[in-house]
## 1
Amino acid sequence: MGKLTIGVFSSLVGSLSLDFSVKLAEAAIEKGHSVDMWVSGNATMLSKKGQKAFKDYSALEKSVQKLFATGNFKAAVCEACAEARGYHKEDTMEGWQRYSMDWYLASCFGADRVLHIGGE
Amino acid sequence: MATRKLAFIVRSLPYKTEASRLALTHAIASQSVEIYLESGDSVDSVVAFIGDGVINCLRNQKAMEMYGVTSIEQHIKMALLLDLRLLICREDLETFGIREDSLVIDAKDLTGETTAQIVPYKAIMEEMGSSDHLLFF
């Protein structure tokens, strides 16, 4: 089966692009593919632990944890983008890695398809 | 041993969002991607400015003075210093009435030798057609 790399730059709250990305990852894994996800810019908030679920806002922490549990999902957050937002290593949700941007390019290198979803 | 070509297509205005800055920083990261790859494998990055994105290439940006942040101009020069290929759409420059002498074309002040190329949109389309993956910013 194939490998899909999804790079997302949109914010967790204020856009549904991250919701779409997570649903796409779920669908791909369900079909037997593996998925790498890179979050950069405002999308780094997806990887922050302790998100509180309100019905008016996207709440994706549980969905992402289910993706990690499949064993076919790897995800990394842009460390510089996170630190610039005052979001530090100890705030990171379990399963996420913190890397520089070259991780994303390396993932693109080995991907059968890349879906790059830009920010606002 | 393989090379994958990634095309970073910049359509966003500078400073309004961080998109064009992230395009350049991600493209520059191709210089250190080998640490994650097998020996001999590499990523070849090309950055193309089209549409509103050509505004990123204007010279004499004052981002540090105005906002206290690095300018897109500095990132473009860094990319040129690292010998990344930068393409600027000729037709879109003409649409905005931007002349070549208004653009960041080289990084000679940093001892860079590579220059940005002003090319017709057709050439950018060909670059996109020959790339393994397209990343739009």
## 2
Amino acid sequence: MSALGEARIRVPDRITRGEVIVVNALISHPMDTGFFRTVEGQPIPAYFVKDVVVRYGDQEVARFEWTSGVSRDPVISFTLRADREAPLSMVWTDNKGGVFKQSANIAFVSA
Amino acid sequence: MSHADNNSRRRFLRAAALATAGLLGSGALSTGERLLAATAPGADPGDPEVPNEEVARILKGLFGDRPIRRGHIQLDMPAAAEDGRVVPVIIESDLPMTPERHVKAVHLIVDFNPDAHLAAFHLTPAVGIVSLSTRIKMKRTTWVRAFAETNTGDVWADYTRVQVLLNGCG
């Protein structure tokens, strides 16, 4: 199991300008609901990613509001119209103030 | 719990779920839901009934009194989820994503979850199309609702009922 907050973003290897690509992102996070207890009977407090911001260059292109109802180690896939070469960056923020970042480069194949 | 215990428990749960599915397939329950749903504003016959105050409050808060129509959004989930902790969700829409006309938000509601408004996905035309997928937790067998809200104020919906064999919410 990866370390807390370790994140990956996967984009296609070969992207042509103007193409709508699929972006897959994954972060390691327990996404505890607050409804479970440990084997010893101690309550496990709610601990989950509540906000995900996606930026393409300087532009915010999507923002996801999550609850602890998203599964452990959240995955999300979404699309992006790749119309310029720029970094795609994501910031995951959890309910305890943890901030986790990752980025991927959107670059076009040369003709 | 040993692996053997776990396996026999799973076989029992699966058998129970299949039995339940058979009962639901008889149609008595779904007919009742259809009749009630027909009284909701903008509802199509066959829309699931709003099950409780919580979901009613969420819908009112998100969409006010705007009509909610079926169409232009597709919610794909397994008909039966063996483990409610990890249930795949795919949401797609054929609505345009242009600066003039686009889907500005997709909302996912799971009727009997502790936090029924499970996720909101705020989008811009830069995403090109609406195509989202993730994995969610489900407490019990219930309807799942996906809504696409456009920048012009239209609300489109799709619904799917998911059988949950193992409570994923605690």
